[in-house]
Structures are given as C-alpha cells and as structure tokens.
User: What shape does this take?
Amino acid sequence: MVDAPITSAELEARAPASARRPLIGYALVLSAVCLWSVNATVAKVVLDSGGLTPLRLAELRATGAALVLVAAVALLAPRSLRVSARELGFLAVFGIAGLALVHLLYFTAIKHLDIGIALVIQYIAPVLVAVWARFFVHEPVRRRLWVALALALTGLSLVVELWSGGALSGVGVAASLGAACAYALYILMAERSLQRGRDVFSLLAWGFVFATVFWSFAQPWWKFPGGILGDDASLLGRLAGVSTPVWLLLGYIVLFGTVVPFVLMVTALHYIPATRATVVAMAEPVLAGLVAYAWLKEEIGPLQIAGGILVLAGIVLAQTARPAQR
Assistant: This one.
C-alpha cells in the first residue's frame, strides 16, 4: 500500500508548536532589546555618579551574571557544566577577550559618547563577522557584502563627523570600535561552540566565570569601594530630582540588563531562526537612543541620524550576505 502524499496543512499540523508561533519569538527578542536599551541609560547614570569606573562596572556585571547563571545551570542542568581540558582554553578566551572586553569597552564608550552614537558604532560587529566569514573561513558570501561595507563605513563617517577632524571624543569612538571587534569575536566563538554541541546557558555561564576570574586578578575584590553601594545617585536628565540607591541600579544591570535579556534571546531561538533574531536585535541602537533622549535629554543631529540609518542598512545587508545557518 502506497502512502498518500502529505499535504502542507498536515505538515504544519505536525510541526512543533514553537515552529508555528514566530510572533512569540519576535516578542521575546524585542523584550530583550528593550531591557538592553534601558540598561544603557542605567549604566550611564551609574558611571556619571562618579562612584564606579567603567572597569569596576564591567567587573560587577560579569561577576553578578556568573553567580546567577552558574547557580541556575547547576540547579537545572548540572551535567552541562562539565568541560574537557581542551575546551577550557577556548572558554577562557571567550570569557576574557569576548565578554569581559566587550563590556569594558562598551561602558567606556557610553561614558564618553551619547548612547545612541556609541551603539551605532558598536553595531558594525555583524559586518565584521561577515568579512571574517568571507576571507578567513572562506564561506560563500554574496556580493552584497561590499555594498554593506560601503553603507556601514559611510554611515560611520557621518556618525563620528569625520569631516570635522574628530568632533566626538576620540576615546569614546576608539572604545566603540574596540567593542565592535570584541562583540564580533564573541559572536564567532559562540557560533563555533554551539556547532560543537555546547548549549547556550552553560556557554554563557562558563564565559562569565572566566570573565570574573580575569577581573579578580585585574582589580582585586578586596580593593572594591564597597561603601558606594549604599550611596544615592541622581537619575540625571529629566529625572535629576530623583535619587535611588546605587545597589538598586547595579541590581538592574546584573539581572535585567544581563541575565534576563540573555535568557529571553535564547528562548526566542526556539521560535525563530538566529538570523532573524539578530536582525530584530538591531533595533537596540534606535531604542537606546530614544530612551536616552526621553531620560537624559541626549540629542543626535540629522546627519548622525542619517548615518545611523546607513549603518543599520549595511548591517542588514551583511546579515543576508552570509548563507543560511546549517
């Protein structure tokens, strides 16, 4: 007896529920992006309060995230924390050169630049990933990559006002570019680790553990100015008359600016492909700029807005230039 062909309706009915609810995936990604966007302004408030340096804030974020993620993974999936001796070196580079540096450089950038500008520069990372895939991994990348590069570089020159000889902070621009490179490294290493079979949660847990170890040597915890945790910090901008404890702001950065958005983003991958999730996540510079405008009164000029649009367009093209994930 020959089986009757399966119709498209039957295939859809047999598909997992997650495959038939992409709107949930998009909602999860946007929720993560919203939390990250607010986190940028919260971090800037903490840095401008004068109590913490970008290095100490990066150390706190890594350590807090490591404690939460390791505890959660150890409780729910302890076997996934097992690693081989060969993998330890990879995870160490991932945690230090990827997670630790991207947070340090990001916090340094937003201390010297408006948040929207810093994020637009940092988000050239997907373009760097596409370039790496083309020239070093020799992936078949579509020709639109060159258009993406041209758009991104043109937009970047508008954002940093290249013709004015460097009107923006040189430290801030350099930190943003460094953060883009660290972010690209983080993406490439995470992609390779997932292809080897490691799950996202244990990968992030180990990455933040090694970032914490790095910071513990770079800035010993016994020298941490713990007295500032009980201080009050002005929320600045339109909320300058409101103050809140520093420890509360730091709690937001760890939980709702790091752990929760990562969990939301990972969960979204059950409903939509990673390529689509990445494209949706590129709304962060726009949303972060809106939050900074509404909260801190930060403004971006028309040319910088146009440059940001060109950079985002270049990122979208760079994403579509790479082949679909296997």
In short: Strands lie at 232-234, 243-245. The CA atoms of residues 62 and 96 lie 10 Å apart. DSSP finds 13 helices and two strands in the chain.
